[in-house]
Write a structure and sequence with these properties.
Number of helices: 2
CATH class: Mainly Beta
CATH superfamily: Ferrous iron transport protein A (FeoA)
Structural class: alpha+beta
Shape: globular
CATH topology: SH3 type barrels
């Protein structure tokens, strides 16, 4: 399952980061490492932007970014 598919209010764990180069480094800096818990707080209009709680911080990701994170 991908982070993009998780519904509001659910808590999942990061399984794999499929991003490349700069974006992969950005995700790691945000705390999106293997085993990290992610809670979906709210989705924006047309589900283009979603707000997540990652290691206590609220972070917004675009749908094409959250599509690169595999979760379980």
């Amino acid at each position: 399952m991908k982070l993009l598919d998780v519904k509001v209010g659910e808590i999942v764990k990061v399984k794999n980061n499929r991003a490349q180069d700069y974006l992969k480094e950005r995700f790691l800096a945000l705390g999106l490492t293997s085993g990290a818990q992610v809670e979906v707080l709210r989705k924006g209009p047309k589900n283009n932007l979603t707000v997540y709680r990652i290691r206590g911080a609220m972070i917004a990701l675009r749908s094409e970014e959250s599509d690169l994170i595999e979760v379980y």
